[in-house]
Design goal:
- Pfam families: Cation_efflux.
- Belongs to the TMEM163 family.
- It comes from Prauserella flavalba.
- Keywords: Cytoplasmic vesicle, Endosome, Membrane, Synapse, Transmembrane, Transmembrane helix, Zinc.
- By secondary structure, this protein is mainly α.
- The chain has one domain: Up-down Bundle (Alpha-lytic protease prodomain-like), CATH 1.20.1510.10.
- It has 6 helices and no strands.
- It is elongated and about 55 Å long.
- The two termini are 23 Å apart.
- The C terminus is likely disordered.
């Protein structure tokens, strides 16, 4: 890869991250405002998820602005923390819904937000992953995984509404969401482990000397 190709990919990664920041700030403000007005915990929770994504995208911007492969260790650890935060939020919401037997019943605004998020963020997640792999940048790849998980949560909400309406399976949404939470924990572990590996100095093959 030439230096020009790498610079182009870095600019693309930054553009995608900035798009996510702007999108999720708008999405979060709309969700929280509507949630407080309608006394909807689900909508406020949607806004919390948006805030987590804003932080993760900001980490990517901070990392890429230093270079394609700079600051990877602290950035990966920060991304790992956002995975854990996402898992904690999803697990709390899901367990609460299972205990209270809260049936899926999103407001119109919540349904529209989830549908629009799926339409907009699916191609963004794909572009992030392609760019991260082309750059061999684990931070961008990890953040694309988190974007996919947020998309998966939108799908669980919409599928949960459908299953509750047709079959009365009110528990489907929180149960599937718990699976997403478990996957978020696993992704957080992988990101943290990769950060630990990136901090280990490389050695020249066949020698015990560390690479300067």
């Amino acid at each position: 890869m030439t230096a020009q190709d790498q610079a182009t990919l870095v600019r693309r990664g930054l553009a995608l991250a900035w798009f996510i920041v702007v999108w999720d700030v708008i999405e979060g403000v709309v969700a929280v405002t509507a949630g407080l007005a309608a006394d909807s915990i689900a909508l406020v929770g949607f806004g919390i998820d948006s805030a987590i994504e804003v932080f993760a995208a900001s980490v990517v911007i901070w990392q890429l602005r230093a270079g394609a492969h700079a600051r990877q260790q602290p950035a990966l650890r920060a991304i790992a923390v956002t995975f854990y935060a996402l898992a904690a939020y999803v697990a709390f919401e899901s367990i609460r819904d299972l205990i209270t037997q809260d049936k899926a019943g999103e407001s119109l605004i919540g349904i529209v937000l989830n549908v629009v998020a799926l339409i907009v963020m699916t191609p963004i997640a794909l572009a992030q992953r392609r760019t991260g792999r082309a750059l061999n940048n684990p931070v961008l790849v990890a953040q694309s995984t988190e974007t996919w998980m947020s998309n998966a949560l939108s799908i669980t909400v919409l599928v949960g509404l459908g299953l509750n309406a047709t079959l009365g399976w009110w528990w489907a949404d929180p149960v599937v969401a718990l699976v997403v939470a478990a996957l978020a924990v696993q992704s957080g572990r992988e990101a943290w482990h990769e950060a630990s590996e990136s901090s280990t100095p490389e050695k020249h093959p066949g020698t015990s000397e560390e690479r300067p």
